[in-house]
Amino acid sequence: AQSVTQLGSHVSVSEGALVLLRCNYSSSVPPYLFWYVQYPNQGLQLLLKYTTGATLVKGINGFEAEFKKSETSFHLTKPSAHMSDAAEYFCAFFEGGYNKLIFGAGTRLAVHP
Amino acid sequence: EAGVVQSPRYKIIEKKQPVAFWCNPISGHNTLYWYRQNLGQGPELLIRYENEEAVDDSQLPKDRFSAERLKGVDSTLKIQPAELGDSAVYLCASSPYLQGANEQYFGPGTRLTVT
User: Fold this and answer.
1) In whole angstroms, what separates CA A15 from the centre of its chain?
2) For residue B112, how many C-alpha atoms fall within 13 Å in the half-sphere facing its CB?
3) CB atoms A43 and B45 under 8 Å
4) pLDDT-based confidence at B103, cuts 50/70/90?
């Protein structure tokens, strides 16, 4: 079955440090992959998505993710964390046969001064 | 442009009581989704509408859950009767696209607590 796994339910970084949130997928077909962010008491917002083409995808708020087929990964990074980045981040896989998104369990990012 | 609107934002009910959630998608968005998000988990699709037609309700517990999208605009999700395990955040999302790996726009959700 196709799925996504997010490694680490909680990640804590210092302000200004590198942010790395891990996502691995399992798929028998070329995947379409997404990262969404959820701020407290708000809905999910799209950060970036990979469909085809360039494997390094740039998103909003300085985030980017790299699709690595050999590692079945789509990790999310940001060079320098800001306090406003504190939120929950979800990796998602688009299951084309059923035309729906399959979400990972999420990673809560904490940023401390 | 207004985003996806959901109401109520919070609801506390006793088990066996009915409850309803309302969603108004972004104007012009043909596809509407209802998700359930349990604590510590990602959203899981309950039902997807294309215009007024429910095209995927395979994950909707039909013995107690029902949904409708009259006139292909706003939608209501109902639970009757509610059980303790229904406590979750119910998210509504919409998209201007009918098919494909496209962005979904999410509302803030309704947090349901069943006591």
Assistant:
1) 19
2) 29
3) no
4) confident
pLDDT in tens, A69-95: 999 999 999 999 999 999 999 999 988
The chain B residue lying nearest A96, using CA atoms, is B100
Instruction: Report how far apart, in Å, the C-alpha atoms of A67 and of each of A8, A11, A83, B82 are.
Output: 19, 21, 26, 41
Q: Cβ–Cβ of A99/B48 closer than 8 Å?
A: yes
> Integer distance in angstroms from the first to the last C-alpha of chain B?
37
Pairing of strands B110-114, B10-13: parallel
Contacts of B61 (CB under 8 A, 6+ apart): none
In sequence order, what are the beta bridge partners of A108? A10, A88
| Helical (H) or strand (E) element with A56 | strand A56-58
Q: Flag if B44 and A44 touch (Cβ within 8 Å).
A: no
Rg (CA), chain A: 13
Chain B residue numbers with beta carbons less than 8 Å from the beta carbon of A34 are: 101
Report the Cα A5 to chain-centroid distance in Å. 10
- Name residue, tokens 């990979």: A50
Question: How many C-beta atoms lie closer than 10 Å to residue A40's C-beta?
Answer: 7
Model pLDDT for residues B25-59, shown as the tens digit of each residue: 999 999 999 999 999 899 999 999 999 999 999 99
